[in-house]
Amino acid sequence: MSPSPTVPANVESLFPAIQSDLDLIEVRLRQVVHSRLAVVPEVYLHTVEAGGKRIRPALTLLCARLMGGIGPTTYDRAVAVELIHLASLLHDDVVDNSDMRRARMTANRIWGNKNAVLVADFAQATAVHLLARVCDIETIANLSVTVVRMAEGELCQVYHEGSVDVDEDLYYRMIGDKTASLLALAARLGAEGADGDERAIAVCETYGEKLGLAFQVVDDLLDLTGDEETIGKPVGSDVRCGRLTLAPIHALRQGDAAAERVRDLVCAKDPTQLDLPALRAVLEASGSIDYARRAAERLAAEAVDCLADYAGQVERDALVTLAEYVIARTK
Q: Which CATH class for the 11-328 domain?
């Protein structure tokens, strides 16, 4: 799937049809988490105000509109799914011992790991409470299963840190759990909130899953090839943590001199001394960077193919543009 020349340069211009809805979500995100303890809103708002693409609540809103319109519970569903995402960012920064995210200091670096983890838990609980007031038990169950998948994906990734035996199947299972499952849930929640039938809900869910896989493949590529100033955080963190992503996995499976060079680079005794430019050069020369890019394009195209029955709808066009943006983005 090649990006069209009309793909917006930034996410803010992606969703004109739902911009007023997203503005409302932004307000509600700032209002929904409150506590008698000052540290809770301080840590939480620091994460919210760092910005972000808001792709997950946008997915919820667009899928609701695709299925007929915003329902009485749609906004709560969209806020809840973003709360889960924001909580995962707080957790990730602690797990990865990160200092920077979106060009600002991480919450764990400012308030410490304990406060960051506990506020993340607070945000997750708030998401469950929010949906419990307006949705049936099956929706709460789907949310819980998704959080379990996200945790298992991260745990699996941690377990395999330092291993060069990670293959593509395992890689896709890990990113399917840790990333794509939440985008699939976001799309499903929107369709359910608009009373879509089971087939329509499944279409949206599959779109979200494929989009999430493409998103993470691109994210992993940006960690190898991106510009730190543009991304707003250090690059090369996956390799320094001993995590294999799609491009190195592909290179290592070739069994040639390039594979041996990649093995030497990713297995360096001191990860802080990683020669990232050298690794990039080998991955480019071996075709592994292009291989990962093509994989992201294929997944995005599969996401778009799910929407064939909705040709002509403005929401379908927005979802197509979103898929194009995901593979064309630079941060």
A: mainly alpha
The token pair at 84 is 């889960």
C-alpha dihedral (254, 259, 260, 261), degrees to nearest 10: 160
Per-residue pLDDT of the chain (331 residues; tens, 9 = 90+): 655 545 665 666 788 889 999 999 999 999 999 999 999 999 999 999 998 889 999 999 999 999 999 999 999 999 999 999 999 999 999 999 999 998 899 999 999 999 999 999 999 999 999 999 999 999 999 999 999 999 999 999 999 999 999 999 999 999 999 999 999 999 999 999 999 999 999 999 999 999 999 999 999 999 999 998 888 888 999 999 999 999 999 999 998 999 999 999 998 878 778 899 999 999 999 999 999 999 999 999 999 999 999 999 999 999 999 999 999 998 8
pTM of the entire predicted model? 0.96
Residues 6+ away with beta carbon under 8 Å from 257: none
Q: How many residues does the chain have?
A: 331
